[in-house]
Fold this protein.
Amino acid sequence: MPQRPFKYFTALSRWTALSAVAVCLSLTTVPQAEAKTLRFAFQGTLNALDPYSLNETFTLGMLANVYEGLTKRDKDLSIIPGLAERWETIDPLTWRFHLRQGVKFANGNDFNADDVIFSAERVRAEGSDLKTRIPADSEWVKIDDHTVDVKLKTPNPILHYEWDTWYIMDKEWAEAEGAVAPISARDTNPGQAAFKANGTGAFVVESHEPGVRTVFKPNGGWWGTPEHNLTEVVFTPIAADGTRVAALLAGDVDLIDPVPVQDIPRVNENADTEALTGPELRVIHLGFNQIRDELPTSDIKGKNPFRDANVRKAVYQAIDIEAIKDRIMRGLATPVPLLIANEQYSGAGDFSRWPYDPEAAKQLLADAGYGDGFSVGMDCPNDRYVNDEAICQAVVSMLARVGVKVNLNAQPKAQYFAKVLAPGGYDTDFYLLGWTPSSFDSWNILTNLAGCRDETGAGGPFNLGGYCNEKVDALAAQIVVETDTAKRDGLIKEAYTIMTEETSHIPLHQQSLVWGKRKNIDIVQRADNQVLFYWAKVN
Amino acid sequence: MIAFAIKRFVQALGVMLVVALISFMMFRFVGDPVNQLVGVDTPPAERAALREALGLNDPVMLQFGRFVVKAAQFDFGISYQFKQPVASLIASRLPATLELSFVSALFALAVGVPMGVYTGLYRNTLLARGFLAVSLIGVSLPTFLIGILLIFAVSVNLGWLPSFGRGETVNLGGVWNTGLLTKSGLQSLILPSITLGLFQMTLIMRLVRGEMLEVLRTDYIKFARARGLSRRAINFGHALKNTLVPVITITGLQLGSIIAFAIITETVFQWPGMGLLFLQAVQNVDIPIMAAYLLLIAFLFVTINFIVDLLYVAVDPRIRIGGRTAG
């Protein structure tokens, strides 16, 4: 840890002043110019390093510094070649990938087609959390050492959309380390291979103490041209918000993620630090239970008010999204008309939100036969999304103004998800949820959030309220196999139009990423919240 | 004596079993561990299979029985999050917590005893009143607030000490990572130790002060004064010596709670010890870690009380005789 500058000499005793002089002397004698260390602190921990163990943004983002996929995503999230130099679709059911030549893994092994086929098997194997990256029934054929064909059973226009986080592993290394099978959450003794990494990426893991400290060093044998100037990256988890911000202000770390919105002014006021903000892809939305015949938390008996599209629209129009943005999110939110982020759907501009209009909301409620209002319970996490509980509280008071009495139940995410997801029997009448389509594509939204589901969740696992429209389902089934882009976009638009017209959900906003950094750090903040060291510079 | 020890030992085992049972009952309400183990896209069928494989669908008593049988063999299972054996995980975090706890206790003693003596001897001076006012802060301010205030004052504004973490550590014999041998390790230790030890310091100071006031009124001190002994010999050789017996007892007992309540301090300072491990486990519903930690803390308290009981028996024959007649 480098010495911090002593700012207040007057307050120091003679002894510390002397030692400060000694430090200054030592600074002049020890050459420091070449060490460019990036010290990074995140709120969560980095645990196992097996790239198929956990399908979670932070873990996969950290591993993106060490591993690479066949494709990569650029600074603007567009797909660029990774370990595959180029690819083509020979026919709708056959894709051909041409692999990059001369690439080596960190242990010196050559990268070739066998590694790709091995990784394709491994990621689909029992215990992998990334099985959805590749169609289970696809067939992988080695044409030569640097060409691989993928044969599909059904056309798939977005086959490679998620491959930037499907990392290619070294077959020989995995076999030698005993890591052929993915490390699963259920493994009773995964062994040390789960904590090692051997990728083709720009960095290597030098040491890894899960939950304490991880040190990365540049990979000298990397095939690409480094855009970073780092000699070392030290990652430390700091869970407490106040401590993380203090560590940045004190100069003990160079980069933190996230900065709580209320601390942004504090970070910007400090001479050496600044906040880096930008929209995140995650969209926060509200959902209604539409699958139950009667809402257990409501005073309306014998029917479910949320089955009436007018009631859903009334709730929508009663919510003042601009007030939420200004007061609760402190301007750091982008209200959206759809369940997908504006960056992820080219047609988002054609849609707009239902306007905020409490009078219209009251009228809609009266038309639906709820002129005297009704009561309903709402479930909300309080430690999952930015100011999640505060958003729910605002919704409660806004709905009270149109006569809907909401009883809020805000809980930590562990309890919240246990209640509202399939294992808890989707036990919620009205809820707040955030969602990022990992494939960057609308089909993910239609099938996860809006597909008709049964009691077990089959059909639409994260459609907690059980919204169901067979037309939307039919469109989704067409979208998944349609390879003509223009036609596909038309189908997507049709589905979103139906959902908007009948207020399937209430999209609220994209929350913002807020990183804090020292001013001498340059780094790219990608909207998917991956922290990528290979675009970082210490000046 | 041996019968007494065995009886106490059996009672101690009973206490630990009850602690384990209560914690298992509570685990039903902390949430769903599976949701923390998989990504958002993981289909419900996979989640259900994982729940079954982890044995979370079994009745609580069966899970509890399984845990006790394994715990008796020092096997606490595998952490869901870290995917490492809990026993080795706790062993690797134990040194950080123990070093912090002992340094805090030392700080509490080294500062608390002199302050107590001073406020006992010169109770009407301005400084003594100042000490008492400071001690009021130590008692009434919550630990996390003291921690964050210290971080902002000393680390952020003055820039003197590190704001978080343990600094560089040195590995001793492959099992013990110590921060006591490096400059950054020692610097990192200062703020957390003060935070953790402040309450104990206050306690000791008030205890010493009270005892001093008591002792100074006794006859033998008056006689010592009459004999013309130096003030120094009276205050430290006679008075302080006689106040130390309760101080040592309390300090010993408090050591257990320092270790147990290091959770907050460790979280505020991101101190990589057992307490931080436990708090993260609660957030992630990592049941194996929670169960093992609670059992360990129960063990700690039971052991300390057991030793204290034995010491009392050794010191005070009345308890020995009472124990025999009762048994």
In short: The beta strands of chain B are 170-172, 176-178. Chain B is about 75% helix and 0% strand.
